[in-house]
Amino acid sequence: MSGKSALLALVLSAIPAALTAQQSAPEIRLLFTGDVMLSRLVNAEIIARKDSPWKAFNELFHSADLVGGNFEGAIGSPAECLKQNHLCFAAAESSTELMKSAGFRMVTAENNHSGDLGQFGRDQTRAVFYKSGLLALDFDNSPQFYRINGVTVAMIAITTVKAADGTVEQIPSVELMQKLRLARQLANLVLVSIHWGNELQDWPTDAQELQAKWLVEHGADLIVGHHPHVVQTPKCIEGKPVFFSLGNHLFDQKYAETKDGLIADCRIRGGQLSCGALRTHTDAATSYPTLGGRDAASDQALQNCTSPLGPGLQVGDTAIKPMPWSANEPTDGLVMEGYRDGNLQWRSRRQKLVSIQSAKAMGTEPLLLSLERHLSSIDNEVGLRPYVYAIGPHGLIARWRGSALAWPLVDAVATESGVLCALHRGDSFLLSDPSTKDRRIAAYRWNGFGFKGIDTQPECEKALQ
Prior knowledge:
With 465 residues, the chain is α/β, with parallel strands linked by helices. It is 20% helix and 38% strand.
């Protein structure tokens, strides 16, 4: 073998198998619409016309690998609305089958109308969509995962606009940071669906810009936004496509600006994500949208916004992937799958994971650090517990089974230097006060059997931000 041939063989052998597979996989197409409302005048038109609002989209939607939209409302009866004098979008159960037959595979159900029917409506919305084989994604059951042609896609749903039942998320927050960390570790692509901004305003607010930057810095690869009901031109933020508002997709608003929408049109080719957009338009006399051509403004704004897929989670010679979402499986927790050389070796029990990461620097063997929710007899609380796992030929081997650290835990991260940085509540196990807002940071070192407290490291402040 010549020197050049030997060098080439060495370079090729260093390329991770997962990356090689991504680069050679078939193209993946992801489509995401703006606001979809199936109550009020939209429902009346569907009943009167006795046909689908998505007839014009049938070929497009069924040719894509994943189609999603923002579902404005909740499944149930108008009589179940929390506030009878409040704008309430109660949609019929038949809505879910209508969306499934149109080609949708998932909806986000986290917006200012998701709580119109209270917790009962939220639970019923998830259940009815699941029965139809579609994911209804809210913040509590985020992230959820799809696997398409070997690529793992994670999805998280957020609303910063308060719902009728008071639900709203803050950016930043520890809980959102944990969801992003979990998604980033386990997926090749992290998508965030977010309800934000000001209604009928066709430009993003300063808050949206800052929130988008924070989301990208904490793991988001793609952001699709909604709520303004009008289109806001997307931007490339730190190399990631951000659709601030896709506008209305299927809605009965009458303002001229609310009749135009976008469909985020994203492709994964050769291990790279790129996005543009398609235009939609709804005539004044109907709520049914029609499909336009390419949206030149969006395509131009994102033409150089191409980003590589993430590597996923690799521990030693094992690639660890989440079992994809299925309507036939519980959504409370995740099942981990271990692959070697592309072949499935084992599946874990279902775990209530809050976050997971490689912690190879903590010990002499490849390790995983997870944060899980469990009931503990120490404080009689369902709280956050750290677990340390080694990887065996048949699955995860617990080296540390969630025993408490010095104080009740809020978050924890293993750094590249092998330090466990922990964010604790300000109370104690003896004098428990889960409502306290006080926080303290502590550092620990893994000794092979457990964690020993050490002087708080400067790196911990940054790691927990």
